[in-house]
């Protein structure tokens, strides 16, 4: 990276609830200033609506606080994921719960929603949530299926248009070489998840930016409880710079585009992290701290005046 320049990154899709404080520290050290945590499934299906309620509460509460203790701004998207949409009795209850959470502070969209196996139930709850997003004026974060990726991606966009959503309010995630052209041509934001060892490594990402440029493209880690890399955004940025992609394009796909797309919510602004606030690990959330007995809190004192 060029000398003397302090790069800032945004990871617009990362499931921090499943990650450790070491990850937060590493992300902060690598220059990540803000992140978006989409509501998703937890590796096994929930059986009660109360589990969703507590999960959404933690996304707007404890997890936000935890990020702040490492100097990172945390935002989230709220929604019923496609896998769990297949439990219809429970899905009905979750749909009723969503309006209580989508307008909370720090919620920058309805997501991640869309198709997994492209079942009838998934289609029903995807449509209901598109309507909700429209009603409350929030962007939509779409999870595209890993199986039948291309047809699932096209269907996600077709249905979104049937419901009258403006493509510039819709972020289509988990793209690859097969989907990117149509997603961009139709006016949507195209997000790419960098998966270590599999599908979408970051060398492929470099080639995509070389071919399509940086307009409406963004990169994320989608790091969760599986094998994933919470530093995928800064690592990919670095690789792009090394492979000759311009600084302006790297800034766009690893920071600015996410800010612009999710900024339509009115809930995420650059001023949120450009102030002098600093870290104060003496802070508590409902009486709880990220520190354990005897650990020394990090406190950034912006006051450098000596009296
Ligand atoms: Zn995800």
Can you say what the CATH homologous superfamily is? Answer: Metal-dependent hydrolases
From the helix content, strand content and strand pairing, which structural class follows?
A: alpha/beta
Level of helix content?
Answer: 25-40%
Low-confidence segments, given as residue ranges, are none
Largest sheet: 8 strands, parallel
- Helix-strand topology string: EHEHHEHEHEHEHEHEHHH
Estimate what percentage of residues fall within beta strands: 5-15%
CATH topology: TIM Barrel
Which CATH class?
Answer: Alpha Beta
The overall number of domains is 1
Distance between the termini: 39 Å
> What is the general shape?
globular
Number of helices: 11
Keywords: Hydrolase, Metal-binding
GO molecular function: hydrolase activity, acting on ester bonds; metal ion binding
Protein name: Hydrolase TatD
Family: Belongs to the metallo-dependent hydrolases superfamily.
Write a structural description.
With 307 residues, the protein is α/β, with parallel strands linked by helices. The protein is built from eleven helices and eight strands. It has a single domain, classed as Metal-dependent hydrolases (TIM Barrel, Alpha-Beta Barrel), CATH 3.20.20. The chain has helices at residues 21-29, 49-60, 62-68, 88-97, 120-136, 149-162, 180-185, 202-212, 232-242, 247-263, 271-274; strands spanning 9-11, 32-38, 73-78, 107-114, 140-143, 170-172, 189-193, 217-220. Strands 1-2-3-4-5-6-7-8 form an eight-stranded parallel β-sheet, sandwiched between helices. Helix 1 links the parallel strand 1 (9-11) and strand 2. Helix 8 packs across helix 9 (232-242) and helix 9 packs antiparallel against helix 10. The protein starts with 8 loop residues before the first strand and ends in a 33-residue tail after the last helix. 40% of the residues are buried. The model has no long low-confidence stretch (mean pLDDT 94). The structure holds zinc ion (ZN). Zinc ion binds at residues 13, 15, 38, 40, 112, 222. Keywords: Hydrolase, Metal-binding. This is Hydrolase TatD.
């Amino acid at each position: 990276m060029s000398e003397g320049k302090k790069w800032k990154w945004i990871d617009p899709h990362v499931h921090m609830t499943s990650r450790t404080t070491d990850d937060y520290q590493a992300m902060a050290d690598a220059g990540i200033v803000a992140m978006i945590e989409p509501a998703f499934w937890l590796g096994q299906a929930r059986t009660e609506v109360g589990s969703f309620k507590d999960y959404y509460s933690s996304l707007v509460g404890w997890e936000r606080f935890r990020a702040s203790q490492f100097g990172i701004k945390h935002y989230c998207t709220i929604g019923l994921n496609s896998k769990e949409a297949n439990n219809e009795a429970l899905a009905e209850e979750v749909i009723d719960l969503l309006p209580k959470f989508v307008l909370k502070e720090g919620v920058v969209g309805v997501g991640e929603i869309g198709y997994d196996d492209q079942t009838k139930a998934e289609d029903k709850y995807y449509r209901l949530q598109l309507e909700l997003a429209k009603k409350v004026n929030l962007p939509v974060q779409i999870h595209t299926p890993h199986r039948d990726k291309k047809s699932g991606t096209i269907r996600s966009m077709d249905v979104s248009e049937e419901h009258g959503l403006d493509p510039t309010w819709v972020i289509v995630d988990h793209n690859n070489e097969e989907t990117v052209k149509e997603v961009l041509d139709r006016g949507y934001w195209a997000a790419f998840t960098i998966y270590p060892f599999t599908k979408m490594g970051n060398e492929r990402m470099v080639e995509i930016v070389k071919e399509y440029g940086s307009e409406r493209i963004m990169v994320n880690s989608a790091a969760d409880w599986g094998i994933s890399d919470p530093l995928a955004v800064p690592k990919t940025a670095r690789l792009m710079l090394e492979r000759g992609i311009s600084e302006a394009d790297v800034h766009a796909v690893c920071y600015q585009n996410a800010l612009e797309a999710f900024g339509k919510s009115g809930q995420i602004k650059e001023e949120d992290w450009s102030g002098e606030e600093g870290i104060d690990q003496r802070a508590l959330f409902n009486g709880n701290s990220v520190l354990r007995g005897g650990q020394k809190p990090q406190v950034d004192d912006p006051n450098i005046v000596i009296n």
